[in-house]
Amino acid sequence: MKTRITELLGIEYPVVQGAMARIADGGLAGAVSEAGGLGIIACGGASPEWIREEVARARAITDKPIGINVMLMDPRAAEVAELVCELGVEVVTTGAGSPANYMAAWKEAGVKVVPVVASAALAARMERLGADAVVAEGTEAGGHIGELTTMALVPAVCAAVSIPVIGAGGIADGRGMLAAFALGAEGVQCGTRFLTVEECSVHEAWKEKVLAAKDSDTIVTGRGTGHPVRGLKNKFARECRKMEMAAKSGEELEGMYAGSLARAVAGDVENGSVMAGQVAALVTERGCAADVIRDMVREAEALAGRTLDELAALNSRRERA
Q: Which segments does the entry list as coiled coil (predicted)?
């Protein structure tokens, strides 16, 4: 495939692996990049030493481009921003803030900058700052989310900017990829779909919870703090919602969330924050990163070659391309 995203990022397929905090490490990122997509190492809350080790780990797997995600509200964001240049990663994605303070240094180092946005206004602002592309992530996504759905957000962002747009949120297969392209995207980002692949180091209990998820099994917590997060329903999430409904103070709520992701990563999927998107209901297989990318692109291209009449007939039979 050739799109502005593949050309910009130097990748074979316009598929980006989402930066899942405490999960997306060098092993997963390296596997995704080696398979022709773009692997991203999530650096939120990570030490400089860990970041160096994971970049080296990814480089040992592939000589293809890799990326780093900088969570801009992280107290160490400035230090991580410097590491982006020092370690020679090809792409940086950003979230939870503005990358304005780091843009000049990244540009000088030849790094491609791709902020994650949740509105058309923010996308336009990122373009003015010099972003090379944006990820328009809908509220269906797992982890920290905005309010707009992918169906509404992607075309709005595409109308607001001239730089390439990567669609994200609710995409796990070729059907979702084709839909994103129909809305104006030139690439897709997937997080939840990569949770169950063999190269993902997340605890087996987390993988099993994703594989067993139904369409109604996600829940949003944290709205009371201004930082909504989507994850799978469990004891922790239900307790959070009870506290939020009881109008507990922000301090009490923050105390409830503290350490919740770490608990889930360690395997406590009832008392931790098991972040995953609504599309978890469509994730029914494990496989490897290369399988996910290959199958997604194959299905999208097979569907794209059909007329609407043919698609309707295929859908009526509940068949997949």
A: none
The Cα 295–Cα 288 span in angstroms is 11
Name, in order, each residue with C-beta under 8 angstroms of 289's C-beta and a sequence gap of 6 or more.
17, 28, 31, 32, 34, 35, 37, 39, 194, 197, 199
Q: Rounded to the nearest 5°, which phi and psi values hold at 271?
A: -110, 15
Q: How far is CA 72 from CA 61, 75, 299, in A?
A: 28, 8, 35
The CATH code for residues 12-201 is 3.20.20.70
Give domain limits for the chain. 12-201, 211-278
Residues recorded for the chain: 321
d(CA 45, CA 114): 20
Is pTM beyond 0.85? Reply is yes
Q: Going by C-beta distance under 8 Å and a sequence separation of 6 or more, which residues neighbour residue 97?
A: 71, 72, 73, 77
Nearest to 37 by CA among 207, 163, 190, 143: 190
CA 23, 93, 183 angle in degrees (round to 5)? 100
202: CB partners within 8 A, 6+ apart: 20, 23, 195, 265
Query: Do residues 63 and 92 make contact, with C-beta atoms less than 8 angstroms apart?
Result: no
Please, is 206 exposed, middle or buried when counting C-beta atoms within 10 Å of its C-beta (0-12, 13-18, 19+)? buried
How are the residues of the chain apportioned to helix, strand and coil, as percentages rounded to the nearest 5?
A: 45, 15, 40
